[in-house]
Design brief:
The structure holds two protein chains of two kinds. Chain A is mainly α. In chain A, 32% of the residues lie in helices and 4% in strands. In chain A, helix 1 packs across helix 2. By secondary structure, chain B is of the alpha/beta class. At the A-B interface, helix 1 and helix 2 of A face helix 9, helix 10, helix 11, helix 12 and helix 13 of B.
Chain lengths: 99, 486
């Protein structure tokens, strides 16, 4: 089965991953996505009835540790890479807007 | 003897017997690295000053004669997705072009503790997404054997730097062949260890359930030496094994006589370059002469390995790369941004390359309502079957042998226009990562003057056997000793 991924779908997933996208890009990706997804559809040939999906690799033991306070990176050092900061906090524009 | 061409073992012997100092060795490696860099372009950053400082410390350590390891004073380069405190770590992405980590990866700490000397950070496909190094957001790397060809990817910079003797060893990272495929293209040795054998702490994640850091070296013995130094349990990575790390080099010389070599029939199909196939067949005959039993085995789901690998990669990457949002680190495009979402949109549009955009969007698609069962869940089920394939094939033999790639290195630009075509070059290497098993790549010949690589695949945590079998081959062949003319 061939599945076409139109530009609206491309724009929708771009928004899901918070990626700005131009009309031109949406058109380019739309064609490429259709052939890649088509290739993935090959998996429909495989009978996976009663097969448990993989959820780990091999090392499946649960790892626990005591919750103890230990020294770590200083607050100042921690936010050193933030593009904008103020009084020890990362600074961003309005998060809760009108939307 | 040119110092930059020494193996770790040779250099370590010369350091121990005081024939050379680490400063001399490091200077020689740095000088050569700079000389050929304009042709090969392996490095994102060369850390001259830091390297010489570390070399001096290594010499002091050697003079005192305490706490010396086989890596003390040895210059190495590391893929630019592994965090180095105070040294720019870019993942070859515009979004991290100026990013300087405040902490070290566990692997970085372990290598520093062993006394190894960091000479630089190597180029890669952006965030590890690619098979040719052409997806680097900074610049492409060239294959030292033919500068018009790609070095392979995604650890293309580490492979090219090792091949061109720009470091005595390098560190790569393998998510679906990213150590082995470029190792084959550049005539070097490299291992993707068992998932969980080497800590991922401080590795900038691509696919958290596939990613494996591994050494890239001149020969198998060196590879074993480096893995011994970087492997082991880490409380900062709960997926690492508690199992003690064996002294791989200790019994590496053990005979392979009577051991069983499995040849997966699905790895020899139409489309393989004739010179690649004949090199692999010759390697099988070499093992026969060494007294190994050769058995044909089957990995029936091989055909589905690539779609499983890419689907799961897209899905995990789309979530892993959500952290690059322009607010806490890296590039931030905030001009005229009306709100925080606008910063995300603009930063990511400008900071990510096309391949990254494609993969995170397709990942979101595969995970989204209505498609989750058909794609993501289906792929996880087939992943279970892939793992069973390896388990049952490896129940009757000690190791599997196959090519690392159906062709030798292709030309720059040859596959960039069709992303799917590029994906297909990972066909032999991608299956091992969803299964978690270890695989060692090593040189096994040439086809039209370009190197051919083969891989040995083993059981979970059985790197020892891979090293033993790989080392036995390198005792009777000299492909790994051939160096490119630059």
């Amino acid at each position: 089965m061939t599945q076409t991924i139109d530009t609206n779908t491309v724009k929708h997933v771009a928004n899901l991953v918070r990626l700005g996208i131009s009309e031109e890009e949406a058109q380019k990706f739309s064609g490429q996505f259709s052939s890649i997804i088509d290739y993935f559809n090959m998996l429909n040939e495989v009978n996976t009835e009663n097969v448990i999906p993989a959820s780990d690799i091999a090392n499946a033991e649960n790892v626990l540790r005591d919750d103890v306070v230990k020294p770590s990176m200083s607050h100042e050092e921690f936010i050193k890479n933030a593009p904008k900061s103020e009084r020890g906090y990362v600074k961003v524009p309005t998060v809760l807007g009108d939307e | 003897m040119q110092l930059h061409n020494l193996t770790i073992r040779e250099a370590s012997d010369m350091l121990a017997t005081k024939k050379i100092s680490s400063v001399e060795l490091t200077q020689a490696v740095l000088q050569h690295a700079h000389e050929v860099e304009s042709k090969v372009k392996s490095y994102v950053t060369i850390t001259d000053d830091l390297a010489l400082e570390q070399a001096k410390q290594a010499d002091e350590r050697i003079a005192k004669g305490t706490n010396i390891t086989p890596l003390t004073g040895i210059p190495f380069a590391m893929k630019d997705c592994i965090s180095t405190r105070g040294v720019r770590t870019t993942c070859s992405s515009k979004i991290l072009e100026e990013y300087v980590p405040q902490y070290n990866a566990t692997v970085t700490n372990k290598l520093a503790d062993s006394g190894a000397v960091l000479v630089g950070k190597t180029n890669m496909d952006e965030f590890g997404m690619g098979s040719s190094c052409e997806n680097s957001g900074l610049f492409p790397t060239h294959n030292p054997w033919d500068l018009d060809r790609v070095p392979g990817g995604s650890s293309g910079g580490s492979a090219a730097a090792m091949s061109a003797s720009q470091a005595t060893f390098t560190i790569g990272e393998d998510t679906g062949g990213s150590v082995r495929m470029p190792a084959g293209f550049c005539n070097i040795t490299g291992i993707k260890p068992t998932y969980g054998r080497v800590s991922r702490y401080g590795l900038i994640s691509l696919v958290s359930s596939f990613d494996c850091i591994g050494p890239m070296t001149r020969d198998v013995h060196d590879c074993a030496t480096v893995l011994e130094a970087i492997a082991g349990h880490d409380e900062k990575d709960s997926t690492t094994y508690q199992t003690a790390v064996p002294q791989y080099t200790k019994i590496i010389n053990k005979s392979v006589k009577g051991m069983k070599l499995g040849i997966p029939k699905e790895y020899f199909v139409a489309g393989m370059e004739a010179g690649v196939e004949s090199s692999i067949q010759e390697a099988i005959r070499t093992y026969e002469k060494l007294g190994m039993e050769i058995h044909e085995v089957s990995l029936p789901n091989t055909r589905y390995a690539l779609p499983v690998y890419y689907l799961l990669l897209f899905a995990e990457a789309s979530s892993n790369l959500a952290r690059f949002d322009g607010t806490r680190f890296g590039l931030s495009v905030s001009e005229n941004a009306k709100d925080v979402i606008d910063i995300y949109l603009k930063t990511r549009q400008q900071g990510f390359g096309d391949e990254v955009k494609r993969r995170i969007m397709l990942g979101a698609y595969a995970l989204s309502v209505g498609y989750y069962d058909a794609y993501y869940l289906k792929a996880q089920k087939v992943r279970t079957l892939l793992r069973r394939d390896f388990e049952s094939a490896l129940a009757s033999v000690d190791v599997l042998l196959g090519p690392t790639c159906p062709t030798t290195a292709f030309k720059l630009g040859e596959k960039t226009s069709d992303p799917l075509e590029m994906y297909l070059s990972d066909i032999y290497v991608a299956a091992t990562n969803p299964a978690g098993v270890p695989a060692l790549a090593l040189p096994c010949g040439f086809s039209n003057n370009m190197p051919v690589g083969m891989q040995l695949i083993g059981k979970h945590l059985d790197e020892q056997t891979l090293f033993q079998v790989g080392h036995a081959y390198q005792q009777v062949t000299d492909w790994h000793k051939k160096l490119p003319a630059l």
